[in-house]
Amino acid sequence: MNNMNLIPLYPEIFLLLAICAILLIDMFLADNKRHITYVMSLATLAICGVLTVTNFNDGVSVYLTNNMFVADPMSDLLKVFSYIAVGMTLVYSRQYVTDREMTNNQLGGEFYSLALFALLGQMVMISGNNFLVIYLGLELMSLALYALVALRRDHTVSTEAAMKYFVLGALASGFLLYGISMLYGATGSLDLTEVARAAASPLVNKTILVFGVVFLVAGLAFKLGVVPFHMWVPDVYQGSPTAVTLLLGGAPKLAAFAICFRLLVEGLFSLAVEWQQMLVVLAVMSMAIGNITAIAQTNLKRMLAYSTISQMGFMLLGLLSGVANGDSSHAAAAYGASMFYIISYVLTTLGTFGTILLLARSGFEAENLDDLKGLNKRSPWFAFLMMLLMFSLAGIPPFIGFWAKLSVLQAVLATGQVWLAVVAVLLSLIGAYYYIRVVKLMYFDEPVDHSPIKVHGDMRVVLSLNGLAVLALGLMPGALITACSQAIIKTLAS
Fold it and tell me: Rounded distance, CA 141 to CA 340, Å?
């Protein structure tokens, strides 16, 4: 359905206007009034959430602006979780950015404004139905993240991480644009619906299409941070301020999944056999290198960076299981499993980095594994929450991470790729070691740091809810699994 009704665009329009208002108001705020910017940012996310939820269209996809923008069940669900992810990031980061003077007169409320600009880019990516619109959303998100990584201008490590991220990001954008140009040359359109129709035609030049897909997958692989395009992930995770690392590891992963789905599934489904073979290589390499390399890390943020690489590889297993031997009957279930996996991962990783931010204080970064030693003696409750999160990332029942891995493995087995499922399970067992090592440090080692842990009330509440949600959704995963599955089914059907 294509009409001039702009109601589905209200969340994006409101967010843009709110960012401009927050920037202007923040200019006139004194340092001791900076909490107003924080409250306004959270209020903006809440209103965006209300606008998105009230705009659910009962499974109908609404196309706007000459088919460039689409509001469908998948986009609505991913946007809601993006608001939640960014909101939790702001709550967890509040004390951190204040202690490190990232919100002083020199920088103002740039952290909050840039985080919202990155969210706006993610929303455009999630709802883009045109190659250039998706690319514009991607660059809007990326430019905001580049600036955030380098926000501490006097911090050499952060500046170096920003340079690496920027240079490699530009290279990935070149791959993506070159792939788009080849697909445009082969199909004559940038509209994903038209590209899908042309790609399925027997008259199209398949050679150009396949080469375009190769460059497209390379660009997408960088944004996901999978092997062999993973070089930036450990360095940027370690070099960024921890608050920015949390922002990088959260909501952008949801948007990255969305553009993979838009470009590969909705736009190039007829070439699934070709791009699925590429994803098999990326997934296996990512799970292997990510899990094995993480074992050798002593820096907590680098360990979680390699964990992210392996987790993204596992998520790809769902995307590569849509079509087998020409049979696409399991496609919706496979893509739904992949979507459930990425949402589960984001919820868990938010709590993990939230705990790291909890331990950090002015003049001290909780970046090493040794900083977690004896956490149970310093704060039994937060040690318990961290244990829940680590077990979920390891895929241990009954946490949500177990059901996420199980649903993806079921999708792989449904296509008959038993060997791939076996490899994934074995590599996950290897990965469980470094997650359980964190639990061992918290519960069985003597603390190195005996300073009291000071927690703001809002962070204590949100972090507690985050950790308990991982357990609750693991005990009752049906609602979220069904929501993801139905969102994909309705999106593909409309």
Answer: 23
